[in-house]
Design goal:
The chain is mainly beta. It has no helices and 15 strands. It has strands at residues 7-12, 17-24, 27-35, 37-44, 47-54, 58-67, 70-71, 75-77, 87-96, 102-110, 119-125, 135-137, 143-149, 154-162, 170-177. The strands form 4 sheets. Strands 4, 5, 6, 7 and 8 form a 5-stranded antiparallel sheet that branches. It has a 4-stranded antiparallel sheet with strand order 9-10-11-12, with no helix packed on it. It has a 3-stranded antiparallel sheet with strand order 1-2-3, with no helix packed on it. It starts with 6 loop residues before the first strand and ends in a 15-residue tail after the last strand. 31% of the residues are buried. The model has no long low-confidence stretch (mean pLDDT 88).
């Protein structure tokens, strides 16, 4: 976050619980404590957005503002999932968009048909922690990570494909995604 070195720490706790905190020097702010959860984050000059998958909410986010090198009080960000009775979140990524805030991207899979395609959703979160409406993307391949490319004004989705679930069959690919339509501007070219 700016010139301040910030790290997000996930610690295992007793009875299958975790603590997720943001550290900057000697400062530490806890953003989540509870049931098992996975955390993804990205930082800008104005703050750190931590996306959480699992835990009590299933899908949530917390913004920790950074001002003059100091961590501010964490702010819960309300993420409204689209109505989908048969789907559950399976992956999440966060990308900082400079001073504009962040993008929280998540994917959902069918709970009754696990082999069906993923659905991908994106919510833009302001630097103050206000979430926009969830929008659907046409990208259905599993996402490993997301980045914002300010020079191109586009997202970059790093995708992965696990051929038959074998480690030696894993392939990665990157595609550019238009921020307005959330469509990929090219088809994946998979490499090992």
């Amino acid at each position: 976050a700016g010139e301040t070195r910030v790290e997000v720490v996930r610690e295992a706790r007793p009875r299958g619980e975790v603590r997720v905190s943001v550290r900057a020097g000697s400062q530490r702010v806890t953003v989540y404590e509870g049931r098992e959860a996975q955390a993804w984050s990205d930082a800008s000059a104005r703050g750190v957005l931590v996306g959480l998958l699992g835990g009590t909410a299933g899908l949530s986010a917390v913004l920790v503002p950074v001002e003059a090198g100091r961590l501010g009080a964490p702010r819960a960000v309300t993420i409204r999932r689209p109505e989908a009775r048969d789907r559950a979140p399976v992956g999440i990524a966060v990308a900082a968009r400079g001073d504009d805030g962040f993008a929280l991207v998540w994917q959902e899979a069918s709970v009754s048909q696990p082999a069906s395609m993923y659905t991908t959703h994106l919510v833009e979160v302001s630097a103050e922690g206000r979430a926009g409406e969830a929008r659907a993307s046409s990208v259905t391949w599993p996402i490993a990570d997301v980045a914002w490319l300010p020079a191109r004004g586009r997202y970059y989705f790093l995708l992965y494909y696990a051929a038959g679930g074998r480690a030696d069959g894993t392939r990665f690919c990157g595609v550019h995604v238009d921020p307005g339509s959330l469509t990929a501007t090219e088809h994946p070219f998979w490499v090992t």
